[in-house]
Specification:
The complex is a heterodimer of chains A (about 425) and B (about 230).
Chain A lengths: L1 H5 L1 H10 L3 E6 L2 E6 L2 E9 H25 L4 H4 L5 H5 L21 E8 L5 E7 L7 H13 L1 H6 L1 E2 L5 H12 L4 E5 L8 H11 L2 E3 L4 E4 L2 E5 L4 E9 L3 H4 L15 H6 L4 E3 L10 H4 L2 H9 L6 E2 L2 E2 L4 H9 L4 E5 L8 E3 L5 H13 L4 E5 L5 E6 L2 E15 L3 E3 L4 E4 L14 E9 L1
Parallel strand pairs in A: 3-22, 5-13, 7-8, 7-11, 11-12
Antiparallel strand pairs in A: 1-2, 4-5, 4-19, 6-22, 9-10, 10-11, 14-17, 15-16, 15-17, 18-19, 19-20, 19-21, 21-22
Helix pairs in contact in A: 2-6, 3-13, 8-9
Chain B lengths: L5 H32 L6 H8 L8 H10 L7 H13 L2 H4 L1 H17 L5 H22 L3 H22 L3 H16 L7 H17 L7 H8 L5
Classes of the chains: A alpha+beta (about 425), B mainly alpha (about 230).
Chain lengths: ~425, ~230
């Protein structure tokens, strides 16, 4: 490990060589930055990972069942487990997806589940990302570069190989493919995650396409190659729901593919992940995921949520208002670390303002106990400092539900809890290790 | 199997053109820089006039500093390097991360050269990396059509610069024959009348070992050969 840490600069040079970047829009300008990498990995023991694996597979299975239910029979609402307000008022719920059964009935093919490790040694789920979770490409390329820079480290530690993500992704695409090529559909060069789109296309052997490269004819999707057209069987779209199809969603979208939803509805193309998944990763729905696991699977949840309160319920509203100074308040419509307010950071006056907003718009917020999650060591020049870090685990659902034996560990570069790359955070590799 | 969209063909062609623009113009600047040692001033005004670009540099030092390194000057080598990388970045899955890494490194090397006290050696490193990029294209890109489109872009840019800057006839002749060969097996649509002009000129140059300069008709045929 010491040798790997000593190679920090060399590894970051390699990252620069391969253009491991992410984009940020600030003040209307697009800038690309190298994603800061810290060589000290997060280490997860094999036994711990096995438990995580079971818990994550259980959670994603239940979430897929929830999505299938919501867009068909809605039994979970009829049975009073999830209030209908949390489904139909969610911005992620898309009426346009009602009655559509995706290929192999899979909705969330690639799920990014955010966890933290509490000081009590327990993993807590912070968030489910079932739309277009990003980040797998970074630890994927980091592993290859770290192996090149410090082979001895990988000879002397029994680290599970994570370089199979491209083939796992291909297997998922092949499993749901409706006949034709696999495509990764990117909004284009100026998307924050463009590096990831192009790298995953290279790794999975899929064709990287923009909206103008694809068209729909007679209910089928085609890729516009130079001399002929090729049918597309699976689209791993990295374009959000609202911009996917201007004929179905946002009519001003220039990056979408007109008619792709018709092709999807007709069962002629698989869309990965399915449109409409936002209803299941809404921060309000998060509260109900443990109940979903019991409801659909008849099992106790293996992994726990952070203790969460819904001001929508009277008791939770009272608790939230009474304990605002120790809770974290999250706006359910925000993502990427935005809309997160720590009550302890607010003045008494600002707390009162927030209380009034919560009372006015109870459905808009959730409140959570602040999980005192474990700090992780970070190299800062020649010294090591401790910073907050989370883990995004990737769960791929195809022929079976598989957890990628790695994950994206994001850390805060400044004191505080916000680890998002868009807010200056860095990343680490995640090792699953056998002793 | 690679499926090439019109957009990708366009990117491949311009990747080749910008690679050649960076490499060729830098080699001219290196030669001028070397001649300056013997007291020959850098003919920057003539250079700009031949390339039909603005010449706001006022003196040779400013010319070198801005034309080579200034990313805000749209006609600079640094801007051409950005365009080269921009076209390459959208082709990662087509040309491969390894091949792409050479042009990424060439751009870093150009930025590092700006603070070098020994620019000719620093420029040599850029040239090395651009040559490595071409080697990587040949070694790692299996699809011949992809290689041919990149090389067509390189030939077009070489000829465009050679004809404007008055390069030796041997260079023009060699490049013209290469371009005709790539064009005849081209994967992309061609302007047939431009190709016909290139063939006639190619035969004339081979026979007479000279070319009329400036040669607007030949330059227009080179620039108009591919409709990308």
């Amino acid at each position: 490990m010491e040798e790997l840490i000593a190679k920090k600069d060399l590894i970051n040079e390699q990252m620069a060589r391969y253009g491991v970047k992410f984009g940020i829009y600030k003040n209307g300008e697009f800038n690309e930055r190298l994603f800061p990498f810290d060589p000290i990995p997060r280490i997860i023991e094999e036994d711990d990972f096995m438990r995580l694996q079971k818990g994550l597979a259980q959670r994603v299975t239940a979430l897929n069942m929830f999505l299938a239910d919501i867009y068909s029979k809605k039994q979970i609402i009829k049975d009073g487990v999830v209030p209908e307000e949390f489904v139909y008022r969610s911005p992620g719920y898309l009426a346009e997806c009602e009655g559509i059964t995706p290929s192999k009935s899979i909705y969330s093919h690639i799920s990014g589940i955010d966890l933290v490790l509490g000081k009590d040694g327990e993993w807590y789920i912070l968030e489910d990302n079932l739309r277009i979770p990003s980040g797998a490409s970074y630890p994927l390329i980091a592993r290859t570069l770290c192996r090149n820079c410090s082979p001895k480290t990988f000879q002397t530690n029994k680290i599970w190989d994570n370089r199979n993500y491209g083939s796992m992704l291909k297997a998922v695409m092949d499993h749901v493919n409706k006949g034709g090529i696999n495509v990764i559909f990117t909004p284009g060069r100026y998307n924050a995650a463009y590096f990831e789109h192009s790298y995953l296309a290279e790794q999975s052997g899929a064709v990287l396409a923009e909206g103008s490269d694809l068209f729909v004819e007679n209910g089928k999707v085609y890729y516009r190659a130079n001399r002929d057209v090729v049918q597309v069987g699976a689209v791993y779209r990295r374009v959000s729901d609202e911009y996917l199809d201007p004929l179905c969603f946002e009519p001003s979208s220039l990056i979408g593919v007109p008619g792709i939803m018709d092709a999807y509805r007709a069962g002629n193309v698989a869309i990965i992940n399915a449109p409409g998944n936002g209803v299941a990763d809404d921060k309000g729905i998060y509260y109900f995921v443990p109940k979903m696991i019991s409801y659909y699977l008849g099992e106790d949840p293996i992994l726990h949520n952070a203790p969460t309160y819904l001001p929508f319920f009277e008791d939770d509203m009272k608790f939230t208002l009474d304990h605002l100074d120790r809770l974290v308040i999250k706006d359910v419509a925000e993502a990427g670390g935005y809309g997160v307010i720590f009550g302890s950071d607010l003045t008494a006056e600002k707390q009162d303002e927030l209380r009034a907003t919560i009372q006015r718009e109870p459905r808009r917020f959730i409140s959570q106990e602040v999980i005192d999650f474990q700090d992780m060591p970070i190299c800062n020049g020649n010294i090591t400092i401790m910073r907050k870090a989370d883990l995004r685990a990737f769960v791929l659902t195809g022929d079976k539900v598989e957890v990628w034996p790695s994950g994206l560990t994001r850390f805060s570069r400044t004191p505080g809890f916000v680890v998002n790359s868009s807010q200056g955070g860095g990343f680490k590799d995640t090792w699953i290790i056998s002793r | 199997m690679d499926y090439l969209s019109v957009t990708k063909i366009n990117n491949l062609f311009w990747l080749g053109r910008y690679q050649a623009r960076v490499d060729t113009t830098l080699s001219y600047i290196a030669r001028y820089y070397d001649e300056q040692i013997d007291g020959n001033p850098i003919p920057y005004e003539d250079f700009c006039a031949r390339l039909s670009i603005p010449c706001p540099y006022h003196n040779a030092d400013r010319f070198v500093r801005n034309y080579v390194y200034n990313s805000k000057d749209p006609f600079s080598i640094r801007s051409a390097a950005d365009a080269m990388l921009g076209n390459g970045m959208v082709l990662r899955e087509t040309i491969g991360s390894t091949t792409l890494s050479y042009i990424q490194m060439a751009v870093y090397a150009l930025d590092q050269a700006a603070s070098s006290t020994n620019p000719e050696i620093a420029w040599q490193k850029i040239d090395d990396l651009l040559m490595a990029f071409l080697g990587s294209c040949d070694s790692y890109i299996e699809n011949q059509a992809i290689r041919d489109i990149i090389k067509s872009g390189i030939c077009v840019e070489h000829l465009s610069l050679y004809l404007r800057l008055g390069a030796p006839i041997q260079l023009i002749e060699k490049e013209l024959h290469k371009l005709i060969a790539y064009a005849e097996r081209a994967f992309v649509s061609l302007n047939e009348s431009a190709l016909a002009i290139l063939k006639v000129e190619g035969e004339t140059i081979s026979k007479e070992k000279k070319v009329e300069m400036p040669n607007g008709a030949l330059l227009a045929a080179v620039e108009g050969l591919f409709s990308v």
